[in-house]
Every structure is written in structure tokens, then in C-alpha cells.
Amino acid sequence: MAEVLAEGFNVFDTTKSPAGTVKYLESPSDVISLIRSGKLGEHILLVRGGTTTFLAPALSMGAIGVITMSGAPESHLGILSREFQTPCVMTAHLSSSESRYVVGDTDDAHFVEIAKALDGRRVRLDCTDHETGRVLADD
Amino acid sequence: MTTTAAQGTTTGSTFRDRYRPEDEGLRFQELTYTGNFVGMEPVTDGIKGDKMMRARAKSKVLEKVTADDVRKDQFTIDELNDLNNYLAWNIWDVLVMRATEGVSGMIPRQEYEILAFMHEFYRWPEILRMTTREVGGAQGIMDIGATARREIGTKVNAVHDWAIGAVGFGMGRCGLLALEAIGPDDYISESNDILKFMQRVLWGKRQDGYLLNSQDRYRCKIHDDDFLATLTAQIEPLEAGGPEHAAFTQFNAAAELLSFLDHYDCRLGLGDTGPYELPDGNLLILRDLFVNEEVFHWSDVCDDAGLPHAYTLAIVLDPEKMSLAEIRVNDISTTFTRPKNYIDAIVGGAVFSREKWNTPMGQVANIPIKDLPGHLERVRTATLKLYSKTSRMCRRDLIWNGQYVYYVDMILPHLRLAGTYDKACRDYNLWEIDQRVANYYYDITKRGFAQETVPSKIFSGAGYLPFSDGADLGNSKGRWL
């Protein structure tokens, strides 16, 4: 099995295993730029929040896979990921780090560390496990 | 393994067991609830949680009640406290897992939510009293609720009706208590006004004596059989993996996403009813997706894209195909299943379009699934334009726009049907911001009030303080001390 870079909640069981370069989306303008680049389908999208609206046009236009740093399968984004059948790993944490997301008590450094480790990496999502979604190295 | 009532065959689904009186349902989460029941056994989610909360009630307000009960002018203190406790648990039940979401990255939802909660508690009572007067009293409000039984694409639905009490009373009062702007025995009379309005609308809609879906094992079966038959006759068969199935499910997701965005990242844009068991044993969910709300100025992009007020999807699930163990249509109009993923189990569907909020039901049109790609394109166009427009707004505009989505939209459908929306705008300054709430804008980010203090009190249940035994039902705000 390939190296597990990160893991989190699996939003739904699927044999789909999308691969692509992680793109960290920090602001709405990043989302708009990605869509306008025409390269949406080449990327696994990495975001901080587990809400839907931040990723709205990307999901609607055919995002292939999503990793979030907060949120659970019951969140807006979890619901929409299932409806779109877009594989999604939520509240992902790095396998190489002890840092974990805690509601209302997560230092900014937690998010920065994950973004730094994953942004630009070639990865594949494994969402076959009922509970745990995995981000595998694919380079 | 179980036997289906409809077919008499042995299958892998077990969801019908959830409707046996002794059944306590599945646990969808490991967390438990305490609220105002410190020192007692923690309350669970789901069917068991509903049973526990009702067993702890002092009154009969959470059991099936009659029309005469609903017509009474006010609740007793025990009834108010039972509703307060139950709504607090219900809010926890449907929302606590959402507490993990973190920040939106675009819309400051927690900030606008708390402002809206408090605004509603202060401003809604006189508008709801006026509306009740204008429709001739309690029965008129019950009749507004009853309209939902033979309509689709109407916002007189579970989430809006629930929000009147759960949000306007429950969370609004909770927020003001947390801010120490009010005490537990302030505004009892106004609390009664809000909760009576909620009770009357919900009772009129359900007609079974219950108020909430959670009291009926998470079912919202409000439509009459003959009305449902007119819709199910138009359902087209779908096969997982086929192009029609893909077109239907992708349209569902895209329209749902736009409805969230048009309603500022909240579920007021979504309304599920059901599950209705069909003669063949399959389950029907009716899903309203409000993709264009004309009172929101930002929804002009949805007009430009030629979108209707609402699409309604009839979604047919084969429970055996997914070995369905439990299905919940919760009180915020959202369907959750175990197993979680029901998309592959969709075996039929139909889409309907309601042009305006007041388009007669007879003019609600069926859209053949082969025509969905054109609608999907319009939805995508509106989504990108609305996203681009929203991303250019300053934080203050985002917060007040979101505040309007809650404060106006949660009672908008009822005011529309009562014919009092224009009067509320003209004579009651509905769209103005109360000075008290305007001032709270500057307090909500201090000491984590909006992002930590209030969510903690709302989700834990600790902030829903009870009214005192023997408190005066006529109490408003007697003193500013």
C-alpha cells in the first residue's frame, strides 16, 4: 500500500479513487482562478472549512476529490459530496503529526502545517473504508 | 433480516423495525446531551432521545394534542419549559455534528446567525401577533400550515416552521441570555407569541397531533395519498450507472448547492418531506430546492439565468438495494440514512418546476429528465455568478445579508400566505435593524461570543435556561438593571 500522508472521516464509501495534484484553496479568488484555468479536473482540492459555499462552483463544475481540515459527514459539504458522488476526506490530519483539529480550539498552525505538507503533492484518495478516508502518496 | 410489510418477502433492509413502538432507533452519533437535566442520565440522539425527552416532560404538550389545545391563547409555564427543553435537545440532535465544520472561508455564518437569533426574538412577536389577528386568529394560522399538504415547492415546510420556535425563541433567547441582555423570566409573553405561532403552523401541516418530525420517528408524511399519486405518476425509472441516473443525481446536487448558496450557506433553501412508502415497497422523498428567492437582492443572478423559484425532485429509493437500516427526515428538512450513501439506491425520479412562490399548484410543471442538462447549465451559471458576486462583498454586508436570510426568510412564507408581508414591511419596518441588535454587531466578535460562547451554550443545551415555576405569563421586560 502506498504511503498514507493523511487520514480523516470518510464521507461515503466508494471505489472511486481519484488522483491528482493537491491544490490548497485559501480564498474565494483561488476557487475562481482554478475554475477559470480549466484545470479543475487535475486537482484534489484542499480546504480548511467543512462548509459548502466556499467550494460551491468547484463542486458544481465537477471537482474530482476533496480534502478538508474540519467538518464531518453530516455537514453541508458532507451532504453535497455524497450527492455529487465526489470522494471526500474530512477533518484530515497528517500521519506524520500529532496535531489534531478540535472544535473551537485549533491553532492556526494546525492548518498551516497540513497545507504546507500536502499542497502540490501528487495524491490519490482511498475512500473504501466505512469510517476512515485516506490520502495516499501517488508520486 | 426482516420481512417487508408491503411484499411479505425476506430482505436485508431493517428500517421498518424503527417504526415498532418498542424500538429505540440507531445511534447516529456517540455524543450525548444534558441540557437542563444535570445529574440525570445523558440523553441520546434519535428515537431513543425523543422518548427520553418526552418522558421527562411535566406537561402533555409533547404528546399528540388536539386542535382545541392548539387554539388556546397561551401555554402554561410547564408547557413553555417542556417546549424549551425539547427544542434545545432537537437543535442538538440535528446540528451538533455540524459544530465540527469550522469557518466557511467566505460567509461569516456564525456571526450572522447569532445576530439573526436575537433580532428574531425581539422583533418577531409583534409581527406574528399582527399576522394572527389579520387571518382571524389561531385557526387562520393552522390553515396556513395545512396548505403544505397539497403543495410542493412551498416554504411552509419543516425547516421554516421549526425555525420559528427553535431559532426565534430557542436560540434567540439563548443568545440574549448568554449576552446577559435578558433574564430567564423576561419576555415570557413574547415567548408565548412565538411558540404558539410555531405550534399552530406545525399542527396544521402535520394534522396528526404531533409538531415535529422527531416525535414521529423522523417522518414528515404530510401529503394526502391522492395528491402524491399525481406526482408519482410522472416518475421515470432510473438505473444506477446509466446516463439518466447521472443526469438526475448531478442536477439534484447542483441545484441543492445553489439553494444553499442563495440562502447564505443554510438549509432554508432545502425542504424534504417523506419518507412515503410506495405500493412496491420503495420509498419516496420529495425534495424542494429553492434556487431563486426574489426578496434577496443578490438573487438577481438567478433571475438572469432564468431559474424558477423552486425545483422539486421526487426521489425513489430502493431500501433493499442499500440494506437500509434507518432513514431520518429531520426537522431541518434534511434526509440522513444509514448506510449514509443512498445515491446508488435511487431507482426512479421526477423533477418539477415552480416558477414563482405563488404559482398555482396546477401550473407546477414536470421537467422530463432528458431536458435536465439545460437546467443544469443554468444552475451552474447562476452558481458561478452568485459566488463571484458574493466573494466581492465586504464582511459587514455578508453578515447583514445572512442575518436577513434568517430573520426575514424564516417567517416569510407564512406572512406571504397570510397576506401580511407588505404590512410587516410598511407598518412594522421588517427590513430595518433594531438598534439593540445593531449595537450587538460590535459585541459578537469580542471574547469569542459568536464563535465560541454562544455555539457552546446552544449545542450543549446549557444556555436554554428554564422559566421560573410560578412566573407571570404576562411578563415582558420589566426592568433594565
Automatic annotation (TrEMBL), chain A:
Listed Pfam families:
PEP-utilizers
Example GO molecular function term?
transferase activity, transferring phosphorus-containing groups
Q: Which residue range or ranges hold the PEP-utilising enzyme mobile domain?
A: 45-127
Extract the Gene3D superfamilies matched here: Phosphohistidine domain
Q: Which SUPFAM superfamilies does UniProt cross-reference here?
A: Phosphohistidine domain
Name this polypeptide is given: PEP-utilising enzyme mobile domain-containing protein
Q: What is the lineage of its organism?
A: Bacteria, Bacillati, Actinomycetota, Actinomycetes, Nakamurellales
UniProtKB/TrEMBL annotation, chain B:
Protein name (record): Uncharacterized protein
